[in-house]
UniProtKB/TrEMBL annotation:
Superkingdom in the source lineage: Bacteria
Record keywords: Glycosyltransferase, Transferase
Species this protein is from: Micromonospora echinospora
Pfam families tied to this protein: Glyco_trans_1_4, MGDG_synth
Protein name as annotated: UDP-N-acetylglucosamine:LPS N-acetylglucosamine transferase
Gene3D superfamilies in the record: Glycogen Phosphorylase B
Domain Diacylglycerol glucosyltransferase N-terminal, residue spans: 18-164
Family, per entry: Belongs to the glycosyltransferase 28 family.
Molecular functions (GO terms): transferase activity
Length: 387
């Protein structure tokens, strides 16, 4: 049977949050019969530049968090800074347009800098299909915003950054439905599966796919509060090696997070990203502690204001906050909440749209040095990438 249309979902492998949201959206759209192409924006770059971009961003988060926070604030308060990013990325517009097949009916972005390419293409008539953005953070930072984007989708309680205005449609989080469903394992069996203590209170400590932030201090202070930490280090092998020992339970990348969340009593997180949304969907209490710079701190403030998490500001506050939330359920949107499945919104737009048509055949004027300078300058200011 012929599919109802093709949808291109654009993300980037900066952290895991952008890709995981894109994967979930693609899965839901395929279930509705659409053909879905997944496009990594950074694959438009030569491979060495791609690696350099990811490594530079990772090192800034780990070693120069103050500079990342300064860039986040600058781009949040200066429209000129965001326009400069858009101008730096302009040479990549044609290259991206050529990756969108003629039968495409909609393009969805889960990565902010993709909007700075897709929006102008749409605005100037070079892309005829709707451009829809799913914001992976609780803060709609100005780097997500670009002229030409048709719809911005954000999770309940998301806020625009400072004085920035955006027409935002509230949607359900792009979180696997496995988190909200009872699993085949009860808590006891889930703990046994992951080699965790059968008794006692367990806190799941996460820091994104790169293990960013003050994780060793967090682990020590959670343990000092009388709660046993279970640490997920993602792909950070050095962090995992450093934290091993002393009776700790330290894991690397975990594929079955729904089962692990059923095994613990509370989530301690520092970015307000996808794992936080997964915990809320699973009914697991969330504590924000030592949030990372930039989007981590912005998300922490929004989560606390909305009552979705508790923010422990000091080591002295951590113990009482953990004691207060353990055994409680977080505030989550009710079933009759007006938010919608983003896949349904995208599917509706795609069914109404004409196909994108062929891209132009002119070759872009690019060179490897231009690639590196433009993207490194822009992606250092990326937001919301951590799982």
């Amino acid at each position: 049977m012929e599919h109802p249309g093709r949808i291109v979902v654009v993300s980037a492998d900066i952290g895991a949050g952008h890709d995981r949201a894109a994967d979930e959206l693609a899965q839901r759209l395929r279930a509705q019969g659409f053909a879905v192409d997944r496009l990594n924006l950074l694959h438009l770059l030569p491979r060495p530049v791609h690696r350099a971009v990811r490594e530079t961003y990772r090192r800034v988060l780990h070693r120069l968090p103050w500079s990342y926070h300064a860039l986040f604030r600058l781009t949040g308060s200066s429209p000129t800074a965001v326009r400069a990013i858009r101008a730096l990325l302009r040479p990549f517009r044609r290259r991206l347009r050529r990756r969108i097949p003629p039968d495409t009916r909609a393009v969805v972005s889960t990565y902010p800098f993709a909007n700075q390419l897709l929006g102008p293409l749409r605005q100037h008539g070079r892309l005829r299909v709707p451009v829809i953005t799913y914001v992976t953070d609780f803060v709609v930072h100005p780097t997500w915003l670009a002229p030409g984007v048709d719809v911005y989708c954000a999770v309940p309680h998301a806020e625009t950054h400072q004085d920035c205005a955006a027409d935002v449609t509230v949607v359900q989080p792009l979180v696997s439905r496995a988190f909200a469903r009872p699993g085949p394992e009860d808590r006891r069996r889930a703990r046994q599966r992951f080699g965790l203590p059968a008794d006692g209170v367990l806190a799941l400590v996460v820091a994104g796919s790169w293990g960013a932030g003050e994780v060793p201090a967090t682990v020590a202070e959670v343990a000092a509060a009388g709660v046993h930490p279970v640490v997920v280090c993602g792909h950070n092998a050095a962090l995992r090696h450093r934290l091993r020992g002393a009776g700790r339970h330290v894991l690397g990348w975990v594929d079955d997070m729904p089962a692990l969340m059923r095994a613990v009593d509370v989530l301690v997180e520092n970015a307000g990203g996808l794992t936080c949304q997964e915990a809320l969907a699973a009914g697991l209490p969330v504590v924000t502690y030592r949030p990372i710079a930039g989007h981590g701190r912005a998300n922490a403030a929004i989560l606390a204001r909305a009552g979705l998490s508790r923010w422990a500001g000091t080591p002295q506050q951590l113990g009482p906050v953990l004691a207060a939330v353990i055994g409680t359920s977080p505030v989550v949107p009710s079933r009759d909440d007006p938010s919608r499945d983003p896949a349904g919104l995208v599917a509706e737009a795609a069914r109404r749209a004409p196909p994108a048509g062929p891209a132009g055949t002119r070759r872009p004027l690019l060179d490897p040095v231009g690639d590196a300078v433009a993207v490194l300058a822009a992606l250092l200011q990326s937001t919301g990438g951590l799982r």
